[in-house]
Design goal:
alpha/beta; globular
Length: about 425
């Protein structure tokens, strides 16, 4: 028999060696998983379920912010389970940044029927922080970059590149974890539309903004924002139906110029076509709608064909479109002041003679045509026109208004902000 004490020492050393090997294996495995996670964050794979699609955002630490808290901390709202109403156990205030709208006189509880109903439904009292309508995005960028206090939630439409930039700089927080925890309706929407997840995901794998609230199966009207609105009364008096070609449009505008379209006895007080060159007036340039009768183009003058990005402005069709517009201007069929127009100027012009002055308006929205609902009702949208070569194009951007909500890093109620945004995706709210 061997020495029992020596066997004990051999067993002890063997155990220590096995333990060391095991620890090395654990550390190596952890490092391997860490590297794999890092690679996954750098190049997130396309996914079809929201759980895996948001894994990079929901299991990582938010970006380092460029500034500290701007407001004193408050007691976080106690939220009910996701999908339950009201959202909170007691009335809680949420500060929300909105773009000022000429159509909304007041957001106050009791004065605005929708916000009153929404507060009663959610148990969230919204304190509105309004930023001016003119140059709203520029104003917002300045406020965010200067570390100003912009409440708990920024609720607006914004290009994803700009939203991503705020996220990269730590001004706004990644939303993945909040969506998983509080996004009852949003999560369902994203699970049913994996392309939407890919469209929202920033290059670093995070989601910094949410999609605009939208009914399932419907398209946001701004996805086809290059529109022209035509005066229905003038069209009825014209008697030849809705223009379907650029020639038809020219004939209609000539009639408006010469025929006393509004019937007030003054043949020269009508305006054929107005719009604006200002970027702050969405899709109001004459070239926005019209040029698609000559060549396809997006908001920046490009289009994709055969997997190649092409520039519309250097195409012969674009030159033909400019010649057509020049002919309209030469013949006195366009508003000569459109270059300097802003929304207010368009409202004043369209509002003359009780809203019976302007035949056509280039604009994305009816509220650009007029803030008066009775005047808005006089106009309808013109279908895409066919150009000289027999082709008709329409601008469609399915991802045009994806971004609708961002949570600043300084938000005092980030969980409540996400729950409130999710409540806006409820079909009853959308209806």
């Amino acid at each position: 028999m061997g020495n029992p004490r020596r066997l004990t020492r051999i067993g002890l050393w063997s155990a220590l060696i096995l333990a060391a090997v095991f620890l090395v294996g654990v550390v190596a495995g952890s490092l391997a998983r860490g590297l794999a996670d890092a690679r996954a964050k750098a190049t997130p794979a396309a996914t079809t379920t929201i759980g895996t699609a948001l894994a990079t955002a929901s299991t990582t630490t938010p970006r380092e912010t460029t500034h500290g808290p701007l407001t004193p901390p408050v007691t976080p709202a106690i939220l009910n389970p996701p999908g339950m109403l009201p959202l909170t156990t007691r009335l809680t205030t949420l500060r929300v940044v909105l773009q000022q709208s000429p159509q909304v006189v007041s957001y106050e509880y009791g004065a605005n029927a929708f916000t009153t109903w929404l507060q009663d439904r959610t148990g969230v009292q919204v304190e509105i922080i309004l930023l001016p309508d003119a140059d709203f995005e520029s104003k917002l960028s300045i406020e965010l970059s200067s570390a100003s206090d912009l409440g708990d939630l920024i609720f607006m439409r914004m290009e994803r590149a700009r939203a991503d930039n705020f996220g990269y700089r730590g001004i706004c927080i990644p939303l993945g974890e909040s969506i998983v925890r509080y996004g009852y309706h949003i999560r369902e929407r994203l699970e049913n539309d994996p392309l939407l997840v890919d469209a929202l995901r920033a290059r670093d794998g995070y989601l910094y903004a949410l999609p605009s609230p939208r009914m399932r199966g419907t398209m946001d009207p701004d996805s086809s924002g290059m529109r022209m609105w035509i005066h229905r009364g003038f069209l009825d008096a014209f008697g030849c139906g809705m223009p379907t070609t650029t020639d038809d449009l020219g004939t209609f505008l000539l009639w408006v110029r010469d025929a006393d379209a509004n019937g007030n006895g003054e043949a020269d007080d009508e305006v054929g076509w107005t719009g604006s060159e200002k970027a702050s007036v969405a899709f109001a340039r004459p070239t926005d709608f019209l040029m698609n009768a000559f060549t396809p183009q997006d908001r920046n003058g490009y289009f994709v064909r055969e997997d190649v990005v092409r520039c519309a402005m250097i195409r012969e069709g674009y030159r033909e479109g400019l010649q057509y517009l020049n002919g309209l201007m030469t013949d006195g069929l366009m508003d000569t002041d459109y270059l300097a127009n802003d929304t207010d100027a368009i409202h004043r012009l369209v509002g003359r003679n009780g809203g019976d002055t302007v035949a056509c308006v280039s604009a994305a929205h009816l509220n650009t045509v007029s803030a008066d609902l009775e005047i808005q009702a006089k106009y309808e949208v013109v279908p895409p026109l066919t150009g000289p070569d027999g082709q008709a194009f329409a601008y469609v951007d399915s991802f045009s208004c994806l971004t609708a909500g961002m949570i600043p890093a300084s938000s005092r109620q980030p969980a409540l902000a996400m729950a409130w945004m999710d409540a806006l995706q409820d079909p009853e709210v959308l209806l």
